[in-house]
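Subject: design request, 245 residues
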């Protein structure tokens, strides 16, 4: 049975003062039928993970090492100590801003597994790749490179996020999302014994008004949401759409 997940990526927004958003989500979804995850900036994880149940709290990145001379970085173990149970790795903004490669992302996922975190591994094509027809081959390269052989349905969630849909208000057509998700599912099934059970999220300009249509697509097990996860009033309808999918 696959877990359905509504995951919010706050990016570089929010501090411990955003507690009211967590409180509002708790009030609106006291007994959710899906997993709700908020990934705030690392500085707010410890404060926001206090009494967060049933909301899960996650990191947005981790280093491959457990500790050491890596100024400004945070290890997976540190995220766990702060109260996180998930971590996003390979977000397109990390790939672009920090030149992260699929090989590095696979190492980060392994570091997450070693710490007991569930890794949300992000993949997705650029606009140029979409337009030149290479989406599925780009996805294949990213899946092969960024997912460790030790990935399982217990330790890994895959997030398909077309780079051109992130933060732009543009979304692929429902048929385009369906095509890529079916393709990813086939690859997961072929490579992992429990690939059928790995949760597969769509990300890119998901909002309350398009969530139900996206969640009706086969092999969409939830969403990774940026802008519309910052306010409980915006995120809650997305969670409800997933609960009712
Ligand atoms: C994201 O940051 O992963 C994302 C999908 O952002 P947005 O929902 O704002 O497009």
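Subject: RE: design request

Done. Sequence follows.
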């Amino acid at each position: 049975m696959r877990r359905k997940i509504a995951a919010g990526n706050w990016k570089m927004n929010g501090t411990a003062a955003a507690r009211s958003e967590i409180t509002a989500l708790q009030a609106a979804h006291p007994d959710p039928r899906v997993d709700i995850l908020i990934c705030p900036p690392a500085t707010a994880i410890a404060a926001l993970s206090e009494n967060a149940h049933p909301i899960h709290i996650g990191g947005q990145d981790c280093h491959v090492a457990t500790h050491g001379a890596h100024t400004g970085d945070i290890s997976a173990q540190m995220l766990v100590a702060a109260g996180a149970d998930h971590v996003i790795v390979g977000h397109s903004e990390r790939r672009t801003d920090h030149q992260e490669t699929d090989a590095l992302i696979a190492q980060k996922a392994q570091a997450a597994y070693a710490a007991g975190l569930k890794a949300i591994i992000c993949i997705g094509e650029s606009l140029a790749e979409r337009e030149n027809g290479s989406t599925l081959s780009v996805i294949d390269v990213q899946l092969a490179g960024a997912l460790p052989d030790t990935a399982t349905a217990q330790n890994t969630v895959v997030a398909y996020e077309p780079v051109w849909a992130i933060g732009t208000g543009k979304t692929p057509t429902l048929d385009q999302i369906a095509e890529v998700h079916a393709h990813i599912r086939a690859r997961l099934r072929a490579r992992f014994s429990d690939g059928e059970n790995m949760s597969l999220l769509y990300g890119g300009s998901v909002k309350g008004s398009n969530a139900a249509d996206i969640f009706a697509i086969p092999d969409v097990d939830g969403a990774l949401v940026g802008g519309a996860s910052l306010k409980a009033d915006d995120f809650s309808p997305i969670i409800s759409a997933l609960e009712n999918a």
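Residues 9, 161, 166-167, 203-206, 224-228 surround phosphoenolpyruvate (CB under 6 Å).
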